[in-house]
Amino acid sequence: MTSDLQSSREALGARLRELRAETGLNQKDFALRLGWQESKVSRLQNGKQKPTSEDLETWANATRPDALAGLLTRLRGLESQDRSWRRQLSAGHAPVQDRYVAEYRRTATARGYETSVIPGLFQTADYARHLLVQNAALMRSPRDTEAAVQSRMRRQEVLYEPGKLFRVLIWEAALYAHVGTADTMTGQLDRLVGLIGMSTVELGIVPLRAVMPLTPKHGFWIFDEQRVIVETINTELQYDTSDDLALYTRVWDQLAAAAVSGLRAQRLIGRVRASLRAI
Q1: SS (H, E, C) the chain
Q2: Same structural domain for residues 215 and 250?
Q3: Confidence band, pLDDT 50/70/90 cuts, at residue 1
Q4: What is the pLDDT of the chain when averaged over all its residues?
Q5: pLDDT digit string (tens) for 141-151?
Q6: Are residues 65 and 162 in the same domain?
Q7: What is d(CA 184, CA 168) in angstroms, rounded to the nearest whole number?
Q8: φ and ψ at residue 108, rounded to 5 degrees
Q9: How many CB atoms lie under 10 A from the CB of residue 139?
Q10: Among 256, 103, 279, residue whose Cα is nearest residue 176
Q11: What is the pLDDT of residues 221-256, one digit of tens each?
C-alpha cells in the first residue's frame, strides 16, 4: 500500500473518530450502539480497514447525519487512489485486462462514450498491441503485451452472448487518431464496420461537424445503469450515486442524439478509411 493511500485512509479514520467523540461514547459503547464488534470500530478509526458506503451511512446516522456527504466524498477520493494506474499496472497489463474480462461477463447492458480511442471491446489485436506498448512505456509498467492482448480479445467474447447489449458512441476524432501503421488503422476501421448490425451492439459515431448540445467531454462507461467508470491518464474513477448516474446518463443521451448510426455511420467510417491513402 502506498504511503499516500494509507495517509488518506488514516485521515478518514480520524474524521470518524471525531464524530464518534462528539457523541460522548467510548469506542466500546459506540460499537454497541451500531451493533458492531468493537474491533471493527477500532480498525475503521485507525485506518486499518477501508469502510464501505454503508458503513459510513451507519456511522453518520449514529453521530451526525449531515456529515455523510463529506464522508462519502473522502471515500471516493480514497477509492480513486486505490485504483490508480500505477498501482493497478504494477504487475503488468494482463491482470487488469483479466479483471475487465470478468467485469464484462457480469454486465448485461453497458453504455459507453469514447473521444480519443477505439474502445477495447471493439479493438483488433494489432490496434490493441500498439496501444498497450505505448501505455506500458508511459506508465513504466512491466511489458506483458502479448498476454494483455490475448486477454483483451477474450473480453470481446461477450459480443456474441445472447442477452447482452453494448450501446457505444465514438467521437469521429477518435477514428483519425493514428495508432500503428496504415494497415493497422485500415483493419481497425473495417472491424468497426463489421460490428454494425450485430444484435448485441448499437454503434453510434458523433460527427465532428455535428451540432452538439454540449462539448465532447471525456470518455466514460455506464454499466448496468448502476455505476459509471471514467478512465483518466493516471486513475480509474468509479461513481455509483444516483446523482452521478443521472448526470452521466443525461450526457450520454445528448451525445447519442447527435450521433449517426447504421448506414450513415458506415459511410462516415468509409470516408475516414479512404483518407488513410493520403498518409
Answers
A1: CCHHHHHHHHHHHHHHHHHHHHCCCCHHHHHHHHCCCHHHHHHHHCCCCCCCHHHHHHHHHHCCHHHHHHHHHHHHHHHHHHCEHHHHHHHCHHHHHHHHHHHHHHCCEEEEEECCCCCHHHCCHHHHHHHHHHHHHHHCCCCCHHHHHHHHHHHHHHHHCCCCEEEEEEECHHHHCCCCCHHHHHHHHHHHHHHCCCCCEEEEEECCCCCCCCCCCCCEEEECCCEEEEECCCEEEEECCHHHHHHHHHHHHHHHHHCEEHHHHHHHHHHHHHHHHHC
A2: yes
A3: very low
A4: 91
A5: 999 999 999 99
A6: no
A7: 21
A8: -95, -45
A9: 16
A10: 279
A11: 999 999 999 998 988 888 888 888 999 999 999 999
Which residues are CB-neighbours of 44 under 8 A, at least 6 positions away? Answer: 13, 16, 51, 55, 59
Place of cell 477514428: 175
Beta carbons of 152 and 158 less than 8 angstroms apart: no
**How far is it, in rounded angstroms, from Cα 149 to Cα 125?**
6
The boundaries of the domain holding residue 216 are 92-278
Q: Is 77 exposed, middle or buried (0-12, 13-18, 19+ CB in 10 A)?
A: middle
Count structural domains, the chain: 2
The CATH number assigned to the domain holding 36 equals 1.10.260.40
78 pLDDT band, cuts 50/70/90, is: confident
Whether the per-residue pLDDT at 106 is higher than 80: the answer is yes
| Cβ count near 125 (within 10 Å) | 15
| φ, ψ dihedrals at 128, nearest 5° | -60, -40
Tallying the residues shown for the chain, one arrives at 279
Domain termination site, one of 52, 82, 112: 82
pTM: 0.75
